[in-house]
Each structure stands twice: as structure tokens, then as C-alpha cells.
Design goal:
Number of helices: 11
Radius of gyration: 20 Å
Bound molecules: glycylglycylglycine
Number of strands: 12
Structural class: alpha/beta
Order of helices and strands: EHEHHEHEEEEHEHEHEHEEHHH
């Protein structure tokens, strides 16, 4: 029996509703698998914690969860705490402190879900976005002077290192090797951003030359966003900087039916540190407490965790169960259904048991 220690951080808003749903499904998987068990420790780090303690997590927070096998996180951010305070106080330290430099986000239209794109089916929307997760536009370098005067000056430095750029692009090409469509598309903006993006392009083509069997292309982020809508079937793996990857994956989740279904893995590929699994969506204050949050983004993130921990078949089992439940019409309102968080979760659990039997 293999036991994994999971650090759970439900965080804010609907994170507190979908993380327990994801945990239920992990327990069902453990149950039907028989050879794996999860031991959870929950941490209350969140905006509520900030309002009480003046920080999003304790000073030694990373040390406390550093020994876990994985982190299972819900959502970060809530009205009453500035978004940059909550993000930089919790999620970004986790991503950086544990060198989770590869953020992998599948964009896949599951059977039973209607894409907002007309006449698109599951065979048209099935690719992965790899987001650089440790540097780029998410940088704390810069400053603000002469505040509240007409002479106010604000600078924000983007940070692109050769090591960081090369390793994420290499990661994207390695991933493309395992995919049906062997193609990597690079998100750039080297016409307007004249230092970092031409550098990104240069590194992209240096790496691309080493992967003979994999098609490579670069596209400006504006055109690429439009192509997500007009030609989603053309993509295999899309690689982008921190900000570009973040924006593209909200769009990706939307064309795959709902932001509520988007899953994400913040990976430390070397497995020196724990990786963190969280849905793409945020805390959704508008639907908190209504019991209608879509649990599938969290459940799918749990499936990505299973894959990372060495159980790819368990990943497939969960995703197949999700697809079957959606195809049967059990959906939360964001997908046009009437089911609650609890009903969708129970249906996925039941389907996992049925498929595994
Ligand atoms: N579930 C992830 C979450 O709460 N994300 C909030 C957010 O705004 N994240 C920005 C980012 O991923 O960079």
C-alpha cells in the first residue's frame, strides 16, 4: 500500500466547496484502486486568515507543507483583500518556493459539454497550454514614486532568464512528444515588446531545432487568441509566458465549455519539491454558498495529481467518469444544467466505481 501526504489549501470562496468535492473523488479512487491511500492535512490559509493574522499564511508556511507529496489547492482571493496581496501572499510563493515552473493546463472539450464555439465537438478542442510559472511578467521588480502627484511614475520590470525560458520551452516539446498532435505553438509578441519577446522567440527556435519530429510555429498573442476561437483544432501544445499563459487558459477553459471545468497542475518536474494542483477558476464570490459551484475543475486537477504521482490510469479513470457524467446530462448551471456541486460529485464517484468494477 502506497500512502501519499496531501496538503489541502481550500483557500477562499468556492475553493472551500470544491476542494472537499475533489477530496471525495480522490478517496473513491483510493478505494477502487486498493493499493494507494491519501492522508490529508488541511491548512486554513486564505483571505479570512489574512484578515485575522495580517498574512495569507504563516511565515514558515512553505516549510510546513514542503514535506507533503502534493498540494491540493482551491482558490485564492476575496473582496476585502487586494488581489495582488492575496496572490503574492499565498499562490505565488508556493509556485516559486517549490520551483513549480511548469503550469500545465489541458484544454479539452469533453463529450456532453457544448462549446460556445458553433459546431465544434470534442475532436476539435483537445490541446494543452504550458504556462511559464516562475518569472516573466509576474515580477516584483519595479517601483512607484511621486505617488498622488501629477509626476507619479510607475515601473514594472518583466524578468526573462535564459534558464527559465529554455526549460519551459523544452518542457513543452517533451510534452508534445507524448501527444497525438506533435506540434508546439509559441505565444509571442515580439513585434511590440522588443527585448524580452524577441529573446523568447530566439530561445524557442534554438530548442525547436533539437526536436526534429515535432512541428513548431510562433504566433503573436493577439492572433493566437483569435485562432483559439477560429481554429482550435490546429493546436497540440501551446507554450507561453506567465501572463500570456494565464490569459490563454481562461480563454481555453471558456471554449471548452466553462471556466468551472478548467484544471491546472503547477509542476516541479524534477519532483524535488511538491507540485500544486488547482482549478483554473478563482473564488467566484458571486456564487459562494449556493451549492452550485462546478466541482469538475477541482476533480480534474485531482486527476492531474494522480498522473503526476505515477497513476496515469487513475487519471484516465477520473476523466472518463467525468465525461460519462456530463454526457448523461448531470451538470452544474455554468454548463447549462441544474445539478448541485454535491450531485455532480456523487455522480462522478458512482461512475468511477462502475467503470472500475
Ligand atoms: N484556483 C486558482 C486561483 O484562485 N487563481 C486566482 C488567480 O487569479 N490566479 C492568477 C494566476 O493564476 O496567476
Amino acid at each position: 500500500m502506497k500512502q501519499f501526504d496531501i496538503a489541502m489549501i481550500p483557500g477562499d470562496g468556492i475553493g472551500r466547496e470544491v476542494v472537499p468535492a475533489g477530496q471525495k473523488i480522490l478517496n473513491v479512487v483510493a478505494d477502487v484502486h486498493g493499493g494507494v491511500r491519501f492522508r490529508y492535512k488541511s491548512y486554513p490559509w486564505s483571505c479570512a486568515y489574512y484578515l485575522k493574522h495580517g498574512r495569507m499564511m504563516p511565515e514558515d508556511g512553505l516549510r510546513r507543507i514542503g514535506d507533503s507529496d502534493a498540494i491540493f489547492l482551491g482558490a485564492v482571493g476575496f473582496p476585502g483583500v487586494a488581489d495582488h496581496v492575496s496572490l503574492w501572499g499565498l499562490l505565488i510563493p508556493i509556485r516559486r518556493g517549490f520551483q513549480q515552473y511548469a503550469c500545465v493546463r489541458p484544454v479539452k472539450l469533453l463529450p456532453g459539454v457544448r462549446s460556445p464555439l458553433a459546431a465544434r465537438g470534442p475532436e476539435d478542442i483537445d490541446f494543452v497550454v504550458v504556462r511559464e510559472n516562475n518569472e516573466g511578467e509576474y515580477s516584483s521588480m519595479g517601483g512607484r514614486i511621486y505617488s498622488d502627484t501629477p509626476h507619479e511614475v510607475v515601473t514594472q520590470l518583466n524578468l526573462f532568464t535564459r534558464r527559465g525560458t529554455e526549460r519551459i520551452i523544452r518542457y513543452a516539446f517533451e510534452l508534445a512528444r507524448k501527444k497525438r498532435k506533435k506540434k508546439v505553438t509559441s505565444a509571442t509578441k515580439s513585434n511590440g515588446i522588443i527585448f524580452s519577446m524577441p529573446f523568447w522567440d530566439e530561445v524557442f527556435w534554438e530548442v525547436a531545432r533539437r526536436y526534429r519530429g515535432i512541428a513548431a510555429e510562433q504566433m503573436h498573442i493577439d492572433a493566437l487568441s483569435a485562432r483559439f476561437v477560429t481554429h482550435p483544432h490546429n493546436f497540440g501544445v501551446v507554450v507561453g509566458s506567465n501572463l500570456f499563459g494565464d490569459i490563454l487558459t481562461d480563454l481555453g477553459a471558456a471554449i471548452a465549455g466553462s471556466i468551472g471545468i478548467g484544471a491546472s497542475a503547477n509542476l516541479n518536474p524534477e519532483k524535488k519539491f511538491p507540485s500544486c494542483f488547482e482549478p483554473v477558476h478563482g473564488s467566484a464570490p458571486d456564487i459562494v454558498g449556493k451549492g452550485i459551484a462546478n466541482p469538475l475543475g477541482q476533480i480534474w486537477s485531482g486527476a492531474l495529481m494522480l498522473e503526476h504521482l505515477g497513476y496515469p490510469k487513475a487519471h484516465d479513470l477520473v476523466v472518463n467518469a467525468m465525461a460519462a457524467v456530463l454526457a448523461s446530462g448531470v451538470k452544474t448551471p455554468d454548463l447549462g444544467g441544474k445539478a448541485s456541486t454535491a450531485q455532480v460529485t456523487a455522480a462522478v464517484g458512482k461512475e468511477i466505481r462502475r467503470l472500475a468494477a
